[in-house]
Amino acid sequence: MARYESVLESIGGTPLIRLTRAAQGLRPRIYVKPEWQNPGGSVKDRAALAMLRQAEADGSLRPGGVVVEVTSGNTGIGLALTAAHLGYRAVIFTSSMIAQEKRDQFAAYGAELRLVDAFVPRDHPDSLRSQGERFVAETPGAWLAQQYDNPANPAAHYTSTGPEVWDDTDGTVTHFVATVGTGGTISGTGRYLKEVSGGRVQVIGADPITSRYSGGDGSQKYIEGAGHFVHPETAVDEWPKSLDLGVIDRYLPVEDQDAIDAVRELARTEGVLAGGSSGVALAAALELAEDLTEDDTVVVLLPDSGRAYLSTYFNDSWLAAGGFTGPAPLTPVEGPTVGDRATPTPLVERDETVAGALRRLDADGHADDGPVLVVYRREGRVLAPHASDILGWTTPARLRGAATVAETVQPLGPRLGTGLPLTAPAVTGWDGGDGSDGDGSLALVLARGRVTGTVSRQALRDQPTAAGPMVSAASGQTAH
Ligand SMILES: Cc1ncc(COP(=O)(O)O)c(C=O)c1O
Q1: Atom of ligand 1 at shortest distance to CA of 303?
Q2: Where is the stretch described as Disordered (predicted)?
């Protein structure tokens, strides 16, 4: 057992754990590296400590200073614990989408949390980054960690994570699999492993399928931490300087549902409770292992624990609300579901011409009063859209005579998972039985986290027809 003189010394030095049941039938040895064994509960403790120490060394953070970061959570936790230990004030700007458990952890370390829920491009004055930068400009002694562009982030992994993987496999590692957020983990660890092995170790970026890194359309995903999302109105898509593209041999794209399945399965079969980005890494590693041999050793970095996601990826109600399924059946559903009443709904892009949109809808024989979803344009859409890309709905009747698609947009009602029973509170709460059918009378229907159609208030109230379901829960279809 190791003995440390401070909590900061205990950062790093995480073990490798061999997968047995989860790797059954696969030829290579597969080890996971559980980074939640760091004191703040994630891989980001390493980068946080290294960035803060570097800032002290170069004078950008002085005694009495303020540690500030814009973060999806884990880097903020690493900075909060480091700042608490060293006596700095910490102010963290983060998305209001992060799990409640993570918010509470900030507070526990005495850090101040600024929640930002603006869905705007990065260079917009309301964006997370802009708000963080403004705070730093206005606050004397404030230092912004800037994990996306801070060389101390990948350097932390070059000097700690990389050597640990190499030493703990006695130099037998052949493949290293990690997700890519800021790119710090994969760049630093990957570069070390490449150098020490003379280029033999293959470095694989496990990436959410819509992430820009692996060529996705940049639309939102449900997995926190991994991948690169861009707001559709982003003028210049900036990639982090912490990411060294030359180190990554290949990417394996993973759907949110498959990542969720992978971590739920891992908990049930191995007793290892990992978070969502770990699921992305694990799903990619298991796919990779199909083509490897007994001579190969795969190391999969698991960034944080599933304990931070008990209310999301491990919660049946949360999964059902997003139209996700479970590897083991979710709580059984009796009676009709939202999917039984949903209907596939065509898409028009906000910036396409009204004439063009009408020509397409008319050619498809779409009813004049039939709903049409208005979406942001995305290059190379790979899946049905994410709900955050939908601006609202319209109809061909509304489009006729309008100058732009945008001016016809009406607000939507709630988002409903395809498998939700009609008796679920999310459904009955919306279909309040008040008979109103005005704005917001159409809900988005989600399957596997993506928008596959719509359901009207009226359709939820109707008794089922003899013809049966209008769109099956499994079909996941959407027109476009
Ligand atoms: C849960 C989680 N997974 C993965 C990552 C990606 O790690 P990196 O930023 O080193 O690429 C992060 C980064 O914040 C994270 O919080």
Answers
A1: 3
A2: 455-480
Q: Ligand 1: distance of its center to the CA of 412 in Å?
A: 33
Q: Candidates 179, 239, 254: which one to mutate for ligand 1, based on the most atoms within 8 Å of Cβ?
A: 179
Give the atom of ligand 1 at the shortest distance from the alpha carbon of 181: 11
Distance 316 CA to ligand 1 centre (A): 25
Q: Distance (Å, rounded) from C-alpha 51 to C-alpha 146?
A: 9
Residue pair 8/83 in contact (Cβ under 8 Å)? The answer is no
Collapsing DSSP to helix, strand or coil, 131 comes out as helix
Q: Is the CB of 227 under 6 A from ligand 1?
A: no
The one-character DSSP state at 399 is H
121 lines ligand 1 (CB under 6 A): no
In the numeric block, which tokens belong to residue 321? 């609300």
Cβ of 44 below 6 Å from ligand 1:
yes
Domains of the chain (ranges; CATH) run 1-314 (3.40.50.1100), 338-461 (3.10.580.10)
Please choose, from the candidates 446, 479, 44, 440, the residue with its C-alpha nearest in 3D space to the C-alpha of residue 221: 446
Enzyme catalytic residues: 44
Distance 239 CA to ligand 1 centre (A): 15
**CB of 214 closer than 8 Å to CB of 251:** yes
Q: Is 169 helix (H, G, I), strand (E, B) or coil?
A: coil
Angle at 234 between CA 232 and CA 235, to 5 degrees: 135
Count Cβ neighbours within 10 Å for each residue of 127-150 and write b for 16 or more, e otherwise. Answer: bbbbbbbebbeeeeebbbbbbbeb
Ligand 1 atom closest to Cα of residue 157 = 10
Q: Do strands 17-18 and 29-34 pair parallel, antiparallel, or not at all (unpaired)? A: antiparallel
